[in-house]
Amino acid sequence: MPENIDTPDDLEAPPTEVSEADTTDDATTEESPNAEAAKYRTQRNEARAERDALAARVEALQRAAVEDLCKAAAVTPKALWTVAELGDLVDPETGTVDRNAVTKAIAKAREELGIAPVGKGAHVPNAGKMPTTPPATDRWSDAFKPKSRR
After folding, report:
1. Is residue 116 a contact partner of residue 106, using CB atoms and an 8 Å limit?
2. Mean pLDDT for the chain?
3. Burial (CB count within 10 angstroms: exposed 0-12, middle 13-18, buried 19+), residue 106
4. CA distance 82 to 60
């Protein structure tokens, strides 16, 4: 018989399957030190990117807190940022906004930029002022007077 002819036994034999567990075990045992180092470098780079994103988020929250204090003091945040840096207004140990430092920076901004403090209470222009001359006549009462005959 020729060697290239398939026999019925060869056609019916099921193909051998390799489980995934066998391939992953073989791959980890055959991993080179360079591949393991590359994996750790990738993890390190991902951790650094996440750290930088979180630091940017914290800085944005700190800036928002400082700007809220500026708005409460009736000073634009842009005026405050011209005289102070965020690092000067944040407690270095806790990372929270130092209200005393912000208050001092607002006072410095008012002094250097000539920002007048806002007065307390409601402002009503010309409140309490009396006119210099009384009104000439009361036209309403004049409308009901009898006409004078001249």
Report:
1. no
2. 80
3. buried
4. 17
Contact partners, residue 118, CB within 8 Å, separation at least 6: 74
pLDDT in tens, 120-136: 777 777 777 776 776 66
Instruction: Determine the average pLDDT of the residues in 102-127.
Output: 84
Distance of CA 53 to the CA centre of its chain: 12
Structure tokens at 1: 């018989």
d(CA 66, CA 102): 7
Residue 16 dihedral angles phi and psi, to the nearest 5°: -80, 135
Neighbours of 89 (CB within 10 A): 23
pLDDT bracket for residue 55 (50, 70, 90): very high
State the pTM of this model: 0.55
